[in-house]
Structures are given as structure tokens and as C-alpha cells.
Amino acid sequence: MDDFVGRLAIQIGSLQEGFEILSKASTLKDLARQFFHVVRGNFITANVGLFYKPGPDKGWQKLQGNGPENFEQVSNAPSVRLFTLQLLEGSETKVRVVQPLIDRSYLGMLLGEKLDRTEYSDLDKICLQIYSELFGNAYQALLHRQKERELIFSLNHRVLQLNSLIDTGIEVSKLDQYSSLHRLALERAASLTNASRGLVRIANGEGTEEFSFPSGAMSQPAAHNGHRIQSSFGFFGSTYTFELFDKESRNGAGPFEETDQVLLDALARQVHASLENRYLHEQALEKQKIEQDISVAASIQKKILPETLPAIEGYDIFGINIPSKSVGGDYYDCIPLHDGKYALVIADVSGKGVPAALLVSSLHAYLSAYLEGGFSLVELVQRLNKVIYRASTDDKFITAFIALLTPQTGEIESVSAGHNPVYMLKNDETIQELKGGGLPLGMVDMDLPYHSEKAAIERGEQLLLYTDGIPEATNEHEQLYESAAPLKQFSLENRTEGAEAFVANLIGDIKRFVGTAPQSDDITALYLRRM
Amino acid sequence: MNQEFSLTSETRNNCLIIATSGYLNNVGGETIAKEFSKHFEVGTKEVVINLAQSKVVNSIGMSFLIDIIDQLNNANGKLIFTNVDPAVDKMLSIMGIFNFAGKENSVEDALKVFSGQK
Fold first, then answer.
1. Of A152, A167, A194, the CB nearest to B59
2. How many whole angstroms separate alpha carbon A127 and alpha carbon A422?
3. Widest distance between CA atoms in chain A
4. What's the domain range around B70?
5. In 3D, which of A214, A275, A273, A277 has the Cα closest to residue A245?
6. Angle B76-B80-B84 (CA atoms, 0-180°, nearest 5)?
7. Cα nearest neighbour of B5 on chain A
8. Nearest to residue A27, comparing CAs of A138, A129, A182, A187?
9. Cβ(A528)–Cβ(A332) under 8 Å?
10. Phi, psi angles (nearest 5°) of residue A239
């Protein structure tokens, strides 16, 4: 009895020690190796074989040890769900143990003859059962540790996916290379979903462009019969499709999970947003460039329009130009000529903005050249018509009024090229309209005749040149200035004012009339008063 | 750069140096594991994996790397990654790989660590 208790005490000590060793195992093979040494040491036998059966319907595989290679060959005992221990007769193998494990797998153990050639005792049988259960517990702990590791791995992977999603969003927004953008998103999508391959397809009316990952991997994506997910979006007539093929696992390829589709959609959305942002950025840059161009055009035009008008002895003259946009299409000037005359000019280009400003610039250049060219006024206008016709597009022309003033006599020779009538405010309180001439400049090039008109401005009389922005100024009720307050009436009422005051009053009157309505057209006026 | 996986290996001072190229996925991980096993079974316990040409890694590829790290750590060995691309570096860091494996800028630096010069 004392001997039994003593041996039991030793076995219990070994059990504690054995469990400590077994619980440190990180793999099944490692666990089997440790268990092999524990069993061999405690049962003093050279031959120990350990086997593993992954499931009720699976075969046995050898894990560790010596002796028979095949567990089934040793006995034909049916698969069991309970611990079994068989003593075998007439064989080198003396004990056969089957220990069911927590996950419906089994541990098989074959023990050979003990080194002291004694039979396996009842205590040995009890201890073998306890050791087998010890293995079962250690195996369960190993599974828990593995599950814990898998869980940590899975949680880390989720963190990685979220982190990568944020990083990818930032990176794709930085990339200026069109193809790099898709490549990066595709690589990240494949990596984060464990896809074996991926493809980006950009299809539009001109054809289809493809990028694959790994590069050159998808020669026939349409023919792929495995698992796939895809996400598409449309942008500027092109359809962008991101496709991923075959989700990898350690056991081979399988179907994608719901979260994989969510991730792919999120990455595709990031690419979409990046493309949109890039487009808007380019538009903004283009707009900025256009605004710069307009600003340059406006400063050029400012130089074309006179800062101050020349002082003409015996006359008071003042002009104004208020463009409706940053660059306008109106022009006026008073140019002293070498023969003592002055050219009074006012012009209005059809349309507004930079194209109109360019035509104003052409008019200014040609007019300046021709005025000193010794041409008659009619010849000058005919030449202007030709060059403006050549310089303008079909929808562009210029209405202009050009007059040559001889200051000493007040004689005026004028040509109106389709411009608004110019008002001469006579001393008898009548208004003489100067409107003879011809078609607007640049409208046709058919050598149609222009003719000039002659008049004279007497002391105390005035001449008002204006563009249609004045009579057609519109208020918030869509009423025209001309219909509410005829310009002729205003002119007669204000004719005693000096030139600058007259123009200031006119502009003030128009502004009061227009109120909060936006300025619809350029406003230009040139006012000459003979004192 | 061809993104299909391939590797080269050499041994210097009993240290296995594996240089990978391309997508480190299931195929890539398995290929590395096989190469590692050949050397581990004959006693190699110091391993360098040069990732200079692998810019994309997935978690299956990573799980093979973890197996290698486990086996080496249980055998008192060590794995050092070198030439790690910033994106891959971030992935391996988040997955906690560098808690159990080393990281150096170059293969030469890793060899210095193994030889005790660093």
C-alpha cells in the first residue's frame, strides 16, 4: 500500500510538471513532442507512438514517436467518443489508447513493452488515462491560445484595413499620375481583402484601358470562373470598374466576405472623389488663369482708353467708360491730329469680355495709324471696315462714330458706322442727330459705300457721343432708361453744366434709374461743349 | 517591376538571407516557408528577409511570416526584416510583427546584429 501511495505521489508530481511543460507548447507537433517525452519518462518504455485523427471521418496521422507507423493496423477497434485503453496481447505494442479531444479530434497512443519488461499495472492504466486527459487539457489550452492569437490577428487586421483606408484616401488625393492612382487603390484593395489578383478597367467610347495586379496577371479576366467582387463608378463618360478575384486563405482560394465588398467600394469611392477633386482643381486653375488673362486684358484696355482728354482751346470735353465686366467692348477717344484737327471717336463692339476687348485693341491700333495716313474720313472708315472684318469672327462687328473737328471753325465731318445717333444740342434748343455713314465696321466686306456728314458746332452748343449702354440701361422692372427718361430731354435740361458735371449727372441719373439691377452693358459717353 | 512572387536565397555565416520580389500573398508566404524549412531543419536559426522588392503584402502572406517567427523564437533563433517599404512597414507594425521580429535598414545591418557588432 505504501508502495502504491509512493508511486502515486511521484506520478502526481510528474503530472504537475508535465502540465507546465505541455501548456507551453505553441503547436500540435510541439505538444506531441513534449507529451512523448513525458509519457516515455513516466512509463519507462522506449517505444511510444503518438497519432492524431483530425475528425471522426478523417484518417489517423502520426505525430511523434517510434514503433508502428499506422495506428489502424494495430487494432481494428471502431472509432469511439470516449476514452479507451486496450491492452494488446502477442504484439510488440502493449497498450493502445484513444483520447477524444475537445474539437471532435482524437489523440492515439501506442506504448511498447516497458524497459523492465513488467506488465502495465492498474495504476499505470489510471495514470495513462490521467496523462491522456492532461494532453486533452493542454490541447484545449493550445486551441484557446491559437484562437486568441487568431482573434488578435483579426482585430489587428481590421485596424490595418481602417488605417490603410485612411492612408489610401490621403495618398490617392496626392498622386498626380493618373495610372498611379488606380494602381495604388488596386494594390491596397487586393492586399486588404487578401485577393489573389485584381483588375481596374476604364471603359469609354474610345475603348478600354486595363491595369492588373500583379501586373500582367489577368490576360482573360472575363473568362475567370472563380470568386470575384467588383465596384464601379462613372466619371466624365468613362466607367471605372475595380475587380478582385479569389480571396486567399491558408487552405486555398474562397469567396469574399461582405466586408471585402465594403472595403472595395470605399476604395473605389476614394478614387472617384480624387478624380473629381482633381477635375475641380484643374477647373479652378483654369479659371484662375482666365481671370489672370482677363486682368491683363483689362489693364491693356485701360491703357487704350484715354486717362485724360486733350485740352481743346475754346472747348470743354469730358469722357467716361464704365465696363459691365472686368473688360469691356466700348471705346472712346479724342485724338489731336497734326493738321490741328481733333478726331472724336466712340465705338461699341458686339459682345463683351476678352474677344470684344481684343477687337477694341485692333480698332485703336488701326485708327491711330490711319488718322495720320492722309486718308479722307470716308477712305479711313472703309479701310477700318476691311481690317476689322479680317480681324473679327463672323459674329463680331463694331459700331463706331468718328468725327473730325476743326476747333477754330467748329466744323465737324463725321461718319457713323451703324452707331447710335450723336446728338448736337443746338442753341435753339433743338437736337441735330448725326447718323450718316454706313454699316458697322467688320460686318461685311463688300465695298459698300460709306458717306460722311458735315455739320458745325457753334459757341454754346454741345455734342454728345454715347454707346447703347446708356439708352438701354435696364432697371429691376426690365424698363429701359431711354423709355423712362429720354436722353434728349436729359441733355437739354443739363446743357448748361460743364462737360465733367454733365457726364457725372448723366451717370448719376442712370444709376438712380437702374437701382439694384446689375449693369447689363458697358456705358460710355463723350461730351464736347463749345464755349 | 514584375509583381508575380519570386525569391532568391543565400547563406552567409550560417545566416539564411531570403530576398523576395512581388506580391507577398499565399503563394509568396508558402514559398518563403518552404525555403525557410529547408534551412531550419538543418539548424539555421538566424534568418534575414529582404523585402526591398515586395511592396505589397497581404495577411495570408503575413501569417506565414508569423509561423516562421514562432518557430525561430521557440528555437532561440531570430528573424530580421530589412529594406521594408514604408507601406509594408506600417502593415507589419500594426499587425504587431515587430514585437517578435527585428527590422533593419539593410541586409548588412541585420548581419551585424547577428554577429553582435550592432
1. A194
2. 126
3. 155
4. 6-114
5. A214
6. 160
7. A214
8. A138
9. no
10. -105, 125
Domains of chain A: 2-147 (3.30.450.40), 175-279 (3.30.450.40), 306-530 (3.60.40.10)
Are the beta carbons of B59 and A157 separated by less than 8 Å?
yes
Task: Decide if B60 touches A, using CB distance below 8 A.
Answer: yes
Residue A349 is which amino acid?
V
- C-alpha–C-alpha distance, residues A363 and A200, integer Å: 55
Low-confidence ranges of chain A (pLDDT < 70): 1-4, 7, 11, 73-80, 175-178, 216-224
Distance from CA of A250 to the nearest CA of B (A): 7
Q: Do the bridges between strand B15-21 and strand B46-53 make them parallel or antiparallel, or are there none, so unpaired?
A: parallel
How far does the CA of residue A287 sit from the closest CA of chain B (Å)? 37
DSSP for A74-127 reads: H--PPP-SS-EEEE-SSSSEEEEEEEE-TTS-EEEEEEE-BTT-PPPPHHHHHH
| The three three-digit cell numbers of residue B32, written as one number | 518563403
- Residue A153 to chain B, least CA–CA distance (Å): 7
* Model pTM above 0.95: no
Q: Is residue B1 part of a domain?
A: no
CB contact under 8 A, B25 and A248: yes
Beta carbon pairs, A and B, within 8 Å: 70
ipTM of the complex: 0.89
- Say how many domains are in chain B: 1
